[in-house]
Specification:
single chain, alpha/beta, Dehydroquinate synthase-like, alpha domain, two-stranded antiparallel sheet, 13 helices, 11 strands, globular
Length: 357
């Protein structure tokens, strides 16, 4: 039996199933599909591995599939149109269900398509990367990139269920596994000091994909994410803490060119930068700054931005961020491991020093 968590959003609450072999389990899908029309959205990498199993679990329904190119560079309006084209060509109605079978890019795009198609239809997340299983598949943030900024076009649209099949991590490249660990570490830094300590002790087992340790990391990450989303669905307050490192990281992704840095790699550097700025402000001890850097580096992640991105360029890119209000940049910073805040109260000179300028 899978582990089942709940995202408590009243009438729009939904389960997160965590376990092995769930992609092929009809019981995870059927109660959350309102009609008989299902469109599976996946990509060229995931489809040969898992599309047939998902289709078999939906036997008896009308199932179509659209296969997108793989990569962050394709998270665009032009590629999203392929999903709409497939839905309209198949004449799918308002009681159809979209299933996102893939990593964070597939999940974000499928959710956005579901939010927009006929003003909103059901969708189910079936994340196949660690990053998607612990973060992007939970919480209803959907969207696409714009050349001037990552995830700047999107909508909040909650899934009907999240089906996290941990067996998919067996086929995940090492680089993608490390990228997912960045989001796992984030939960320890922002709100769960005990989890940070657990990660510090169990990181070697995570990196060699010990199944029990991976399952525990996914469960604890999803518990943290579900609690935050239930308290602040539309990011009016506490949910913004989930963006630790993301303002820096999105600037790196955009500046380096979408797809050259994985999201988790950029977030790993971003969390190091947030910790560095926090230490410069006197909020984080130098010992905790070093612990943060060490854990991120031990996870196989970079801890410094690409040298070609100057402080001026990073500041320019950070100005295009969803947390900018009234022209003031707000950042998620740390007052200790396990304690975070959103603030615009920092010396710009300290920020420039953190950025290397």
């Amino acid at each position: 039996m899978p582990t089942t968590l709940n995202v408590a959003l009243g009438a729009r609450s939904y389960p997160i199933f965590i376990g092995t072999g769930l992609i092929a389990d009809p019981g995870c899908y059927r109660p959350h599909i309102p009609g008989r029309q299902v469109m599976i959205v996946t990509n060229e990498t995931v489809a040969p591995l898992y599309l047939a199993a998902a289709q078999a679990a939906l036997d008896g329904l009308r199932v179509e599939a659209v296969i997108l190119p793989d990569g962050e560079v394709y998270k665009t309006q032009a590629v999203l149109e392929r999903v709409y084209d497939a839905l309209l060509t198949a004449r799918f109605s308002r009681d159809c269900t979209l299933i996102a079978l893939g990593g964070g890019v597939v999940g974000d795009m499928t959710g956005f398509a579901a939010a927009c198609y006929q003003r909103g239809v059901a969708f189910i997340q079936v994340p196949t990367t660690l990053l998607a299983q612990v973060d992007s598949s939970v919480g209803g943030k959907t969207g696409i990139n714009h050349p001037l900024g990552k995830n700047m076009i999107g909508a909040f649209h909650q899934p009907r269920a999240v089906i996290a099949d941990t067996a998919t991590l067996d086929t995940l490249p090492d680089r993608e596994l490390s990228a997912g660990l960045a989001e796992v570490i984030k939960y320890g830094l922002i709100r769960d000091c005990a989890f940070f300590d657990w990660l510090d002790a169990n990181l070697p087992a995570l990196r060699v994909r010990n199944p029990a340790v991976l399952a525990e990391a996914i469960r604890r990450s999803c518990e943290n994410k579900a609690e935050v989303v239930a308290a602040d669905e539309h990011e009016a307050g506490e949910r913004a803490l989930l963006n630790l490192g993301h303002t820096f990281g999105h600037a790196i992704e955009t500046g380096a060119g979408y797809g050259n840095w994985l999201h988790g790699e950029a977030v790993g550097v971003g969390m190091c930068m947030a910790a560095d700025l926090s230490a410069r402000l006197g909020w984080l001890t130098l010992a905790d700054l070093q612990r943060t850097r060490d854990l991120i580096e031990r996870a196989g992640l970079p801890i410094a931005p690409p040298p070609e991105l100057s402080a001026d360029r990073l500041l320019e890119l950070m100005a295009v961020d969803k947390k900018v209000l009234d022209g003031r940049l707000r950042l998620v910073l740390l007052r200790g491991i396990g304690t975070a805040l959103v603030t615009d109260q920092f010396d710009p000179a300290h920020l420039r020093a953190t950025l290397g300028g």
